[in-house]
Amino acid sequence: QVELVESGGGMVQAGGSLSLSCVASGRTFSNYAMGWFRQAPGKDREFVGGISWNGGSTYYADDMKGRFTISRDNAKNTVYLQMNSLKAEDTAVYYCAADASRIRVIATTTNEYEYWGQGTQVTVSS
Predict the structure, then answer these.
(1) Which entry of 1, 70, 81, 123 is 20 to 30 Å from 46 by CA?
(2) Residues paired with 35 in a beta bridge
(3) 29-46 b/e with 16+ CB inside 10 Å = b?
(4) What is the pLDDT of residues 42-90, one digit of tens each?
(5) Number of other residues whose CB lies within 10 A of the CB of residue 3
(6) Separation CA 32–CA 101 (nearest Å)
(7) Residues 6+ apart with CB under 8 A from 105
(8) What is the rounded CA–CA span in Å between residue 50 and residue 34?
(9) What span, in angstroms and rounded, lies between the C-alpha atoms of 30 and 22?
């Protein structure tokens, strides 16, 4: 079993930045590819981006490319999401997720991730 806990959410003005963290406990963190997703009210949970188990590869949804950066520190069991140039439409609950399959470099759909955090709210005011 893996427990994921996100932190760092809050309120920011459009154009600003926020950094989210997700700390994992339980099994060996470095075995997992990690992903970030978000869910706005009334919308489906959507893929934000992901990072491979060793941090060597990252992949982002088109709207996040150039604005968001995912990194990880396996020694700290932590994955990060740095968000810059935030827009009002980035407002959502942000979730981290762990993929323990080791058959995918970076998964992009919710059903490919076995473990989820509780989410952290990000609100961007225009």
Answers:
(1) 1
(2) 50, 97
(3) beebbbbbbbeeeeeebb
(4) 999 999 999 999 999 999 999 999 999 999 999 999 999 999 999 999 9
(5) 13
(6) 8
(7) 33, 52, 57
(8) 6
(9) 14
**Hey, what amino acid is at 114?**
E
Which residues 6+ apart lie within 8 Å of 103 measured at CB? none
Instruction: Characterise 59 by phi-psi region: left (phi > 0), alpha (psi -120 to 50), beta (else).
Output: beta
Is the CB of residue 123 less than 8 Å from the CB of residue 10? yes
Strands (E), 74-119: 78-83, 92-99, 115-116
Q: Check if the beta carbon of residue 99 is closer than 8 Å to that of residue 125.
A: no
Tokens of residue 47, six digits: 């893929």
